[in-house]
Structures are given as structure tokens and as C-alpha cells.
Design a protein that fits this description.
single chain, alpha/beta, Rossmann fold, 7-stranded mixed beta sheet, 13 strands, about 35% helix
């Protein structure tokens, strides 16, 4: 069965930025339990997917992977290639960016059905921020805010591969999440940058690549905001 790695955020070293998620990426490759895992990058959430893939290819090639990439052009014109790449992948990585765009494209081009079959096998599904939300039941996102559809963060429905709610980039969204949950009964895994929630065999463990980063379980009880530190 699939192993899921939901990353709350962090810099992968694109451009002149600092590479922050090294320990998490190393753990992802170990979870695949292969000498030369097939790494598949799905960049549908990003408007700069080519340069994003170049960075991830450099990282995961150095970690011993053979890397491939699904471009939107490939997905539209070559469904057989899409199926072949997903079928052969040991690690599937959904990048950060626009959650709504990612989920819409996955549904529009029938990739969700391929993924539903794939998660019945031994595969590591990794999501960064928007990519993490897409695997969860719901995620606290800025998508509609970016599109000026709302002034606030809102929960976006994911693909529900995991029956959990998440908030990536929690250190930047804490106040908004706290306010939102006053009128909402859900519990939320709140992930700061450079942390990851790992789900395998219905058990949850945690990763981080920065000492002070943390993961919380957040909810309201008796009109009090509960921020339970998990890791």
C-alpha cells in the first residue's frame, strides 16, 4: 500500500534560495526501499514547473533516483505515456503552488483514477504544500484569496486519499486558522515549513529538516483554541 509524505512547506533551493528540505527528501527516498527508485514529478500546481522540475531532478538524481516529469502538454496529448509513467513510479511528487489548479487538472485529465489504482501498490506519494493538500480530505489554502474570490484563507477539498485536514505553512497562517476554527468543528494537522507528516499502514509519524520547526493538532474545545504539539 502507499506511503504518504505531506510536507508543510520549505525551500527546495530554486534560484538563489537556500535548500532547506534535505533531510525530508532523504527520508522519502529511503521510504521507497529501492536501490534506484523511479521518481516522477507532477508539476501541475506550479506556473514555473520546468524550472521547479530542474531543481527536483538535481536533488533526487543525487539521491540515487531516475527522474521523470509529467508536463501538462504530455498529459493532454499522450495519455498512454501518462499511464506508463505513473505505473512505473516508485515515488510520485506533487509540487507546491496552486491547489485548485492542481486538483482541477488531475480530475480533468483522468489522472485521479490512475492514482487511485496506484495507491493500492507500493509507492511513496509526496506532496509539498498544495501537493500535500491534494492528498488530504481538506487543506487550509490561500488559493481563493490569490484569485480575489475571498479576502481570507479557506479550506479546499483534496482528493481524500487520507481522511485528515491539514494546514501547511502554519507559522504564516496561525492567526487565520485560529479565527476560522472558531466556527468550524474540524481538527487540523498544522505543519510548519520544513516538517512532514508521514502516513504508512494507517500509522502517522513525523519528519523535520529544521530543529525549531513543529507540527500541531489544532482545534477548539470549550471555546478554547487547542494547539497540541505533536512533534
Amino acid at each position: 500500500m502507499a506511503i504518504y509524505v505531506l510536507i508543510g512547506g520549505g525551500d527546495v533551493g530554486r534560484g538563489n534560495t537556500i535548500y532547506e528540505t534535505k533531510e525530508i527528501d532523504e527520508a522519502v527516498v529511503k521510504l521507497a526501499k529501492k536501490d534506484n527508485p523511479n521518481f516522477l514529478f507532477i508539476g501541475l500546481a506550479s506556473s514555473f514547473s520546468d524550472s521547479y522540475y530542474d531543481t527536483m531532478k538535481k536533488i533526487y538524481t543525487a539521491l540515487g533516483c531516475t527522474c521523470q516529469y509529467l508536463k501538462k502538454k504530455n498529459i493532454i496529448n499522450n495519455p498512454d505515456i501518462v499511464k506508463e509513467k505513473i505505473t512505473k513510479a516508485d515515488i510520485i511528487y506533487f509540487c507546491g503552488g496552486d491547489t485548485l489548479k492542481l486538483i482541477t487538472d488531475l480530475n480533468t485529465y483522468n489522472i485521479v483514477e490512475l492514482l487511485k489504482e496506484k495507491i493500492k501498490t507500493e509507492v511513496v506519494l509526496v506532496g509539498m504544500s498544495a501537493g500535500a493538500i491534494c492528498m488530504a480530505k481538506s487543506g487550509f489554502s490561500d488559493c481563493k484569496k490569490v484569485y480575489d474570490e475571498t479576502a481570507n484563507y479557506e479550506f479546499i477539498n483534496g482528493l481524500n486519499f487520507l481522511d485528515i485536514n491539514i494546514c501547511p505553512h502554519y507559522e504564516n497562517r496561525k492567526d487565520e486558522l485560529k479565527a476560522y476554527l472558531q466556527n468550524d468543528k474540524r481538527q487540523v494537522y498544522a505543519l510548519e515549513n520544513n516538517t512532514a507528516l508521514v502516513v504508512a499502514n494507517n500509522e502517522i509519524t513525523y519528519l523535520k529538516s529544521k530543529e525549531k520547526a513543529a507540527i500541531y493538532n489544532c482545534y477548539y474545545k470549550d471555546n478554547n483554541y487547542i494547539e497540541e504539539k505533536l512533534f
